[in-house]
Design a protein that fits this description.
By secondary structure, the protein is an alpha+beta fold. Helix content is about 40%, strand content about 15%. It has a three-stranded antiparallel beta sheet, with helices on both faces. The chain is globular and about 40 Å long. The two termini are about 30 Å apart.
């Protein structure tokens, strides 16, 4: 996590700038993992226990990452903290690699019904704008 902006309806979590979160089960993690080369993702999952996934969950993970690639946005309900919904979109650099991710968290009751219809399109649009500013030519398409 690099920056944290507080809301008027805050969600309190034990996460701060500099925290290392799992790639799998967080919206920001999915935003990075979905566009990461498969070799790198596999290496990270094998090397770091925080990123590991049980064999029984790998098919579901593949489907989730495919949806993130399709939508250019990820969302999670209760991934790390019960009752918390998160969404994130990747920001690409001039090489087409993920340079950052923009994430949003909120109480599930505040976001659950709006996540796909309102939040994800806004995040995806913002990530396209930022990606374009970083030189990603695919963002203009």
């Amino acid at each position: 996590m690099v920056q944290f902006d507080e809301s008027t309806r805050p969600v309190y979590m034990n996460v701060k700038v500099g925290s290392v979160l799992p790639l799998i089960c967080t919206a920001v993690g999915y935003a990075f993992a979905a566009f990461m080369p498969q070799v790198r993702l596999t290496e990270m999952m094998q090397r770091y226990p925080i990123h590991r996934v049980a064999k029984s969950q790998r098919a579901a993970l593949g489907e989730t990452l495919a949806a993130v690639r399709r939508d250019h946005c990820a969302f999670v309900h209760g991934g790390l903290v019960a009752g918390v919904t998160a969404a994130a979109a990747p920001v690409f650099n001039h090489n087409g690699s993920v340079a950052a991710a923009i994430g949003l968290i909120g109480r599930q009751e505040d976001l659950e019904d709006r996540i796909k219809s309102e939040v994800m399109p806004l995040l995806a649009g913002l990530s396209r704008d930022l990606s374009s500013q970083l030189g990603d030519v695919s963002a203009a398409l």
